[in-house]
């Protein structure tokens, strides 16, 4: 897996460099200089969509256990996002760190894991709805389905995959079966399941993965809470679109908000589809160029928009990563009480 990620990183970086060089540095620098320092406002503005996501996550946590403060949850969410966006972890490292940090606040490990796993499922649902909206708006703007034919096919496949995942989590006892499979595999190799794989301490450690399934089933029972969580996530995705809308206006190439929704949602779909490429290097740039061409956005503007997005991700995410390392390494995580 490390070899795959490193290869994807190199290839993605190469694609990104080729695209930037092809469009030329001077036009990109001209666009950036014309906007100026106002682009830095995108960094604090990103707190709003992230906060809306946190409000949805908090609803799931309230169903399972006592709830940490909103500030703590926002900090954990910013770390989760920064890990997935900036580190070569194939979009899963943030969830693992989120479970660990949430458990450190005093929430039982299987409850913390259940909220993160279920929030990930609901994020797929909200992103699917958002992408569907984006494709509808793109079809209305272009009056043709030919450029988006592959995405329409992917939309149908995505619905099947989400439904299958939801059914497996609800009825399949996925984690209990996974734990049993790992035990059988390690017995064949005369090994033992590492103690760190348990999600609970003490005598309950052996059945922790079964308890994770049970906690996920508990979350399925709160349908109204789940619907509100998806609502908050959709609000966060919509607010995230304002970042694109503002960036294009400040770059001197304003577009309609509907086109921004199409651009943002489909770019996210492409980035999620090719999730093995760390930080979506090259993928995001190629996607924005292709979609920009469909929506009438020049390639140099699309590349500049991608670079602005990466600037925001770095300036917002690096402080979160530094604080995470300080807690994990230099200070140590607080003990459960």
Explain what the structure shows.
The protein is an all-alpha fold and 337 residues long. The chain has one domain. The chain has helices at residues 2-23, 25-35, 42-45, 47-64, 70-86, 93-103, 109-142, 149-171, 174-188, 208-220, 223-250, 257-273, 283-295, 299-331. Helix 7 runs antiparallel to helix 8, helix 11 packs across helix 12 (257-273) and helix 12 (257-273) packs antiparallel against helix 13. The radius of gyration is 21 Å and the shape is globular.
User: Beta-sheet strand percentage?
Assistant: under 5%
| Overall number of strands | 0
How would you describe the oligomerization state of the chains in this entry?
single chain
Overall structural class, as computed from helix and strand content, comes to mainly alpha
Biggest sheet layout: none
């Amino acid at each position: 897996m490390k070899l795959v990620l490193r290869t994807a990183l190199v290839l993605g970086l190469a694609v990104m460099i080729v695209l930037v060089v092809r469009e030329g540095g001077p036009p990109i620098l001209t666009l950036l200089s014309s906007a100026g320092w106002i682009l830095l406002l995108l960094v604090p503005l990103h707190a709003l969509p992230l906060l809306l996501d946190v409000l949805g996550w908090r609803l799931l946590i309230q169903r399972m256990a006592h709830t940490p403060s909103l500030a703590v949850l926002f900090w954990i969410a910013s770390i989760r996002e920064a890990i997935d966006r900036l580190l070569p972890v194939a979009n899963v490292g943030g969830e693992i760190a989120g479970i660990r940090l949430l458990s450190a606040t005093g929430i039982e490990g299987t409850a913390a894991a259940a909220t993160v796993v279920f929030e990930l499922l609901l994020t797929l649902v909200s992103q699917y709805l958002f992408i569907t909206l984006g494709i509808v708006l793109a079809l209305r703007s272009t009056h043709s389905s030919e450029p988006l034919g592959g995405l329409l096919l992917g939309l149908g496949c995505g619905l099947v995959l989400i439904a299958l995942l939801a059914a497996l989590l609800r009825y399949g006892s996925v984690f209990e079966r996974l734990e049993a499979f790992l035990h059988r595999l390690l017995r064949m190799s005369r090994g033992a399941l590492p103690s760190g794989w348990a999600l609970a301490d003490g005598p309950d450690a052996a059945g922790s993965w079964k308890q994770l399934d049970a906690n996920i089933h508990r979350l399925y029972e709160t349908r109204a809470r789940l619907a509100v969580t998806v609502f908050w996530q959709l609000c966060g995705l919509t607010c995230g679109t304002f970042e694109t809308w503002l960036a294009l206006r400040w770059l001197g190439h304003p577009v309609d908000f509907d086109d921004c929704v199409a651009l943002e949602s489909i770019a996210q779909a492409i980035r999620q589809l090719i999730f093995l490429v760390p930080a979506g290097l090259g993928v995001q740039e190629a996607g924005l160029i292709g979609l920009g061409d469909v929506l009438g956005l020049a390639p140099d503007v699309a590349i500049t928009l991608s670079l602005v997005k990466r600037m925001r991700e770095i300036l917002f995410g690096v402080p979160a990563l530094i604080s995470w390392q300080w807690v994990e390494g230099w200070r140590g995580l607080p003990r459960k009480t």
